[in-house]
Amino acid sequence: MFWSQREGSENQNTTNSNTSWLFPGTRAGQHLHPATLSERLKVLGIDAQRARNATLRDLTQEVDARTLIDLLNYSPAVITQHAARAATRMSDYIC
Prior knowledge:
Elements: H1 3-8, H2 34-43, H3 48-62, H4 65-72, H5 76-85
Helix pairs in contact: 3-5, 4-5
């Protein structure tokens, strides 16, 4: 095996093979470091902050605020802000 072939498979040498983590790290019981995931997403052209904000705006149109606050552990102010950006009727929300 050539050096360049082994170099690309470095991340596959992990002790974290039997895990429920969506993004497992290279050490058993550890998730992938957020900065590492962020860099990988950037390489793919994905802006994680923009995607998160768009998702929250969409969720505020589908799910009531109290449920989002409880499920996602966001503050009422954050959910209200995203609901306002989505032009969601605030009378539907009980915070």
